[in-house]
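Example record

Each entry pairs one chain with its bound ligand, iron/sulfur cluster.
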Amino acid sequence: MEVLATIEKNDLAKLLGGDEFGSVSRSTRTKIEKLETIFRELVNPALYYQHLEIDSVEKGAVLLEEGPKFTSPKLSKTMKDCDEIICYIATLGENVDGEIKRLMGQKHLAEAYILDAMASVAADNMVATFHERMKSEYENQGKQVTICFSPGYCDWPITEQKKLFSMFDSNELDVELTDSCLMQPRKSISGVFGITPFNSNQSTHSYNPCLECNQRDCSERRNSAF
Ligand code: SF4
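Structure tokens for the complex follow.
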């Protein structure tokens, strides 16, 4: 699927320690402008997804009809009313990673840090855009989508990346898994969200575990129900 990898400036400012883009120093803004041109030349975004049926949702696990069982109590609680699931893998391609490494190798550490932050924001934005697009598509069919979950975050073990990747044809993916289940290129995001058949008795929002979680410093916190 074609999805743009755009950089939301206020999100970037937050990653760089500011409140909004206007609060970023002039020298950092100059660096961002230069790096943005490089980023646009190098980025090669791709997003792959599979639409799959859920066989059953147990306490602590989601079993897909195709076989894998995703083990995460919070994921299973969110998915309890879902009968379909979307598995996705998004990447910015290897050239951005290569440029970050090159800048680090040349000791341009500030530029490397900023480009890394820009790539993180762009990858997140790419997935958010995809999620919004699917939300509208399913709403038109009278269905709802849940919030997203990724292996390696919250209570979903990173080793479950292997199960998620097993749902894709590796020959068609530009993303690989290392032995420690990290993705290459590094600026890639994998995850899932569920699809709930709409029923007026159900809540209009899917369950969001973050709203009742005490881990205040969690960087993956989702502040709103979707
Ligand atoms: S705040 Fe973090 S740890 Fe808590 S439920 Fe959300 S993602 Fe999981």
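The chain has a mean pLDDT of 91.
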